[in-house]
Write a structure and sequence with these properties.
This protein is an alpha+beta fold and 75 residues long. The chain has a domain at 1-46. Helix content is 15%, strand content 31%. It starts with a strand and ends with a helix.
Length: 75
């Protein structure tokens, strides 16, 4: 499954992106036939919003959450 982002400036000057989800491994394999969904978004999907760390309690995190955190930190 891959996501392809296509930028488009709207007529009112707003930035937008079309997000197409395809059931394939590479962008070259993406076709209309393997398109699963398509949506328009108005925030850059390739730039995720930062995670608020104010409410994170390392003592109550599950082992899966700790593993995800370690992977994000490159540990």
């Amino acid at each position: 499954m891959i996501e392809i982002y296509t930028y488009k400036k709207q007529g009112n000057g707003a930035d937008s992106w079309r997000v197409d989800c395809h059931d394939c491994e590479t962008e070259q394999d993406a076709t209309k036939e393997n398109l699963n969904s398509s949506e328009m978004v108005y925030t850059d999907p390739s730039n995720p919003e930062p995670i608020d760390m104010a409410n994170v309690d390392l003592n109550t995190m599950t082992s899966e959450q700790l593993t995800q955190l370690k992977n994000l930190l490159g540990l």
